[in-house]
Amino acid sequence: MTIKEILIKYSSELEAISSTPRLDVEILLQKALGDVDRLYIHLNLEKSLSEEEEKIFINYINERLNNRPIAYIVGNREFMGMDFYVKEGVLIPRPDTEVLVEEIIELSKDKGSINILDIGTGSGAITISLAKYLPQATVTSVDISEIALEVGNKNAISNNVDNRTRFIQSNLFSALDNNEKFDIIVSNPPYIRKKDIESLEKQVKDFEPYTALEGGEDGLDFYRQITEQGKLYLKDNGILAYEVGHDQSEDVSKIMHTNGYTNIYTKKDLPGIDRVVIGTIL
Questions:
Q1: Contacts of 151 (CB under 8 A, 6+ apart)
Q2: What is the pTM of this model?
Q3: Strand, coil or helix: 41
Q4: Where are the beta strands (DSSP E) in the chain?
Q5: Would you kindly state where each structural domain of the chain is located, as residue ranges?
Q6: What pLDDT is recorded for position 86?
Q7: Which of 159, 149, 103, 104 minimizes the C-alpha distance to 128?
Q8: What is the CA radius of gyration of the chain?
Q9: How far from each other are the two terminal CA atoms of the chain, in whole angstroms?
Q10: 59-87 CB burial, b ≥16 within 10 A, e <16
Q11: Please, are residues 145 and 209 in contact by the beta-carbon 8 Å criterion?
């Protein structure tokens, strides 16, 4: 089959499960053809795949048709202009999270040396992006998952920030020194309500780690714990910054206010949803 024939045939087949069927096919073709770029795909529509290339592609497309996420099939995802290795066991980075990272960069760019704590390593996307774009920052990243710490470490090395990042296995703050203080604590914690897990897309609920999704009965369990405990680990005028679910900004703001945080504000994502909540502890 030619690249053009593949694009037509499998874009149509993926329409039932993907909001970006043609892009999915292009990405899988890129991988099957040896990690070529998208321009190669567009300039070689009449090229026929070799028998081996077609076999590899068919394996990939069958996985995708079974709802396996693209990022797990090809083993990577772009975030903040960088390439991140991902595999099953870590949450796939989303564009929404870039709003959180960009706001912290804006708040920190004119500061001197700063110490940041990221709670919930995942792929390391937040940790590594902050270290990359804030050369004056040292970032500590904690996660309960050994897989997340392994993936985060690997991504720190490949993005050349391993000298300013450290990864610690910890249930929230449990493994940290009680005397350690941070200028900023950031987190994109699990925030899906328990009852809503089953209504998620199959490619999310069946493949991404449950522990990175479920945030308790009301989705706010981790916000309560991090907000309360975080006061002990933030310096004076330290910043607590969260990504939140589409309808959680008001509740998270109230949790922060109740715990003594001030100057609380929200930031919207591209669709106009309050996606980030930030406050300061005096």
A1: 85, 86, 87, 89, 90, 121, 122, 123, 124
A2: 0.93
A3: helix
A4: 76-79, 82-85, 114-119, 137-143, 165-169, 182-187, 234-243, 261-268, 274-281
A5: 3-66, 89-281
A6: 97
A7: 159
A8: 20
A9: 64
A10: ebbeebeeebbbbbbbebbebbebebbbe
A11: yes
* Count, residues in the chain: 282
CA torsion sign for 261, 263, 264, 269 is negative
Q: Which two tokens stand for residue 107?
A: 């708040």
DSSP assignments along 166-210, one per residue? EEEE-STTTTS-TT--EEEEEE----B-GGGGGGS-HHHHTTS-G
Q: Alpha-carbon distance 216 to 219, whole Å?
A: 5
Contact 98, 218 (CB under 8 A): no
Q: What number of other Cβ atoms are within 10 A of residue 227's Cβ?
A: 25
User: What pLDDT is attached to residue 109?
Assistant: 87
Q: Which fold has domain 3-66?
A: Helicase, Ruva Protein; domain 3 (1.10.8)
Helix, strand, coil percent content, the chain, rounded in steps of 5: 45, 20, 35
- How far apart are alpha carbons 165 and 145 in whole angstroms? 17
* Fold (CATH) for 89-281: Rossmann fold (3.40.50)
Residue 167 · residue 141 · CB < 8 Å: yes
- Residues facing 165 on adjacent strands: 139
DSSP state of 137: E
CB of 189 closer than 8 Å to CB of 183: no
The token duo for 274 is 């309050």
User: Per-block average pLDDT, block size 10, for the chain (282 residues)?
Assistant: 96 94 96 95 96 96 96 96 96 96 95 96 98 97 97 98 98 95 98 94 93 95 98 96 97 98 96 97 92
* Burial category of 262 from C-beta neighbours within 10 Å (exposed 0-12, middle 13-18, buried 19 and up): exposed
Q: Name the β-bridge partners of 143.
A: 169
